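User: Predict the structure for this protein chain, please.
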Amino acid sequence: MIRFDCDYTEGAHPNIIAALSESNFEQTCGYGEDHHCENARAYIKKAIGCESADVHFLVGGTQANMTVIASILRPYQGVLCAESGHINCHETGAVEATGHKVLALSHKDGKICAKQVRDYVATHWRDAAHEHIVQPGMVYISQPTEYGTLYSREELKELYAACRELELPLFVDGARLGYALAADKSFTLPFLAANCDVFYIGGTKVGCLFGEAVCITNDALKRDFRYMIKRMGGMLAKGRLLGIQFEEMFRDGLYFRVAEKAVANALRIKAALIQKGIPLLMDSATNQQFPILTKAQQATLGEKYALGFWDTTGGERDAIRICTSWASSDENVDALIADIMAL
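Assistant: Here is the predicted structure, written as structure tokens:
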């Protein structure tokens, strides 16, 4: 079975495996204070163009999301996000378990806009009973979205302007950030760092064995963040395991190269789907594609490939997710394309 159902089916890039093996008997201090983590922080600060940023390494995306959100919000506040947002749909109430409500907004292809945030906040404060209602305290988005779509530079600038105006920190989930950067070269890490308060660079889905690098650019959000990491069970004793991985990824641009390969392969599959006349749920430029397949087409491809069910569209068709990764081989992509064309 060839898997195209998600982007973390493989282990890690060989460079990372080699680096972990080579450093196996090296003695370092723990909890992310070793020289590998310091080197990785230096590489990331240079890449994002913000030497004043605080960079922290956590194991996974859900852990990063709940830790960042819990560190920002007051006890009576909630987080605004798209209805389709990961924290709302795919984290089993992790944010709510910290005592904070997810305040879901309608979305267009996974995205929310500045006007929605302004309208929600205005409605909250107009309500005479607002003290009895969860107060919006921050905004969460992901880049790319759950649908593989992208916030443009202008959309993010407008959203961040609204957040600053309303004094709501903006947090960007970057679990698949590498694929967003590969899909839109005008959207860079320095641009992102300048247009949000905190974001993370995902490693788990972009070539690492595991790990996310949380980058805090807003000074007001930096204080005592390590306390929150520890409180949320996120302070890895053998922290160097995270540092080594991001050291390898950002030493010479490996992170960007592996993401570009995944996106290029996804766009080859997208072109084949379009050529075959198979409709797409939305126009995605990243490593996730969402063809609408008949039950018969699903059964045929399912004999050889693991694809992800996304949503039913009614009748005999469903939206299916095809997801390439940093490790998807050209041979497997070629095989899938040939089988799509043969449907």
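The chain has a mean pLDDT of 97.
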